[in-house]
Amino acid sequence: METIYSILNLLPFEFIQYNFMKNALIAVLFVSPLFALLGTMAVNDKMAFFSDALGHSVFTGIAIGVILGLQNPVISMLAFAVILGLAISRVKESGTASTDTIISVFSSISIALGIVILSRNGGFAKYTSYLTGDILTVRPAEIAAVFVTLVIAYILWIKIYNNLLLVSINQSFASSRGINCRLTENIFVVMVAAAVMLSVKWIGILTINSLLILPAAAARNIALNSKQYHFYSLFIGLFSGIAGLILSFYADTSAGASMVLVSAGVYFITLLIKNKIR
Amino acid sequence: MINHNSCGLCRIDIENLSVASGSTILIEDINLSLHCGELTALIGKNGAGKTTLLRAILGERNYSGKISFVSHEDGKIKRPSIGYVPQYMTFDKSTPVSVADFMLACKSKRPVWLGNRKDDIEKLKERLSVLDCAELVDKRMGDLSGGELQRVMLTCALDPMPDLLILDEPVSGIDVNGLDLFYKMVSSIRDKYHIAILLVSHDLGLIKKYADTVILLDKTVVAKGEIDEVFSTEAFKSAFGYLE
User: How many angstroms separate the CA atoms of B44 and B42, rounded?
Assistant: First the structure.
């Protein structure tokens, strides 16, 4: 960690002299590419709503952790998110017409249940920071966890991306080529759940879904193929993450929300470019 | 009966196949054989179970019964490899995936987001040129017309060459010229390669023109055989009325 700090000290910016800003910057450098990567497929597969529901499950995850007396609620958050994710994906697969409604029900229950449990005896105040997130609370151990997730995500992305792409284009066609559609989608669901749960404390429940969706949504406005799509999404994700963090430092605002605003700005710029070139 | 490129030995056998959803029986006790070098048309009213049967063959639905492939080379019995050309392509048309990305995702283990190699693209162009559409290779999937998309899917479905090619209602979204062209291509595939083709269609005129045998489905196989034979059965008349 010290080595990374000393490298960052070489940067000629005022904000970087604080250790909490260094941690935050490193976290952004890991989280943004992770979300940009997963976002490309979440948008392809029309799963925006789904990842939103995952974000909402955070409070119930924490509540379960509190009931079980866990020191670190990330474990129960992750477990609950994975279960919820797999359940939703099952519903989606069954092809019921009202998938959106069912996801909505899941989502409502998991946010309400969490708030009810955590607000008992008026103790909810200490959890409200999860709503908007606080990236300045990043600790080195958490950075390590995100880094490991990022590495695993890239390895999985190399292994399953082609299959995931075929499944998102046409499931029956993917089946005809011997792809296990359910397994492929479930791996993806678990990846998204892990990414969201590990970083929601920094980014915030209210804004985390935008961080997943916006870079990819902006990228697909201008990309013509998978390579461009990934490259643009990564670039936009990193740019918005870093720019948002720096803006939030000087304007003294929420980092997560600032990042989302920057990426929303990029989204509209790409939308203009799209209308120009088509 | 005309056997175009049939050795008469390779066939896909479906035996006692049934599919149920909860307590509802969708299709039951289906017995049929699809022979190599033959274009078999699967017809039936809406809700007769055509899609369910396809899903079972594709392995997307649980079924009871047996689906097996008997090869002429060694007479061994195995699961047939399947090429599938889907009916609707309901993917998001703004998805940034090029034809090359899609085709290489089918073929190669190398993740397509790393970009595509030049010689891979050349090979794809060669394969696409068989169906006269090499120029599509760099286009986005979402920008293709219905007919173009179908030719790309057919090209994918034929590589590697499957034991059974399934064409699911390949008429939607194509103009008449494109349709005729498509069927001519399918016919030439049947003549050239050693595979069985199963065609699901509503277009009885086209079936009359191109299919070798017909299977009429209504929960189970109610008629099968040569076209005129099936078209003159009572079951056919009650399903489709009289054909001019």
Answer: 7
- The partner residue sitting opposite A166, judged by closest CB among B94, B105, B166, is B105
- Residues B15 and B130 both lie in one domain: no
Its pTM stands at: 0.88
Q: Do B98 and A224 touch (CB under 8 A)?
A: yes
The boundaries of the domain holding residue B168 are 1-81+161-244
Contact status, residue B210 vs residue B227, Cβ threshold 8 Å: no
Q: Which of A171, A172, A226 is nearest residue B113 as measured by Cβ atoms?
A: A226
- CATH code assigned at B37: 3.40.50.300
- A163: chain B residues, CB-CB within 8 Å: 105
Pair B108, A162: CB distance under 8 Å? yes
Task: Report the chain A residue with the minimal C-alpha distance to residue B160.
Answer: A177
Residues of A in contact with B21 (CB under 8 A): none
Q: Which of A173, A220, A234, A267 to mutate to test the interface with B (most CBs of B within 10 A)?
A: A173
From B120, B142, B159, give the residue that closes a domain: B159
Residue B237 to residues B27, B28, B218, Cα–Cα distance (Å):
21, 22, 13
Number of structural domains, chain B?
2
Question: Quick one: closest CA in A to B104, which residue?
Answer: A162
Q: ipTM score here?
A: 0.86
Write down the CATH superfamily of domain A23-277. Answer: ABC transporter involved in vitamin B12 uptake, BtuC (1.10.3470.10)
Which one of A158, A162, A226 has the shortest CB-CB distance to B96?
A226
Distance of alpha carbon A211 from alpha carbon A201, whole angstroms: 13
Q: Which of B82, B96, B111 sits opposite A162 (nearest CB)?
A: B111
Domain-ending residue, one of B118, B134, B159: B159
Which residues are paired to B82 by β-bridges? B164
Q: In a structure prediction context, what are the per-residue pLDDT tens digits for chain B, which is 244 residues long?
A: 454 555 666 788 899 999 988 888 899 999 998 988 899 999 988 888 898 999 899 888 889 998 888 876 666 677 788 999 987 777 888 899 999 999 999 988 899 999 888 999 999 999 898 888 889 999 999 898 888 888 899 999 988 889 899 998 766 666 677 777 788 888 888 888 878 999 988 888 888 888 999 999 998 998 888 888 888 888 888 888 765 4
Q: Tell me, yes or no, whether B63 and B166 share the same domain.
A: yes
Q: How far apart are CA A8 and CA A18, in angstroms?
A: 10
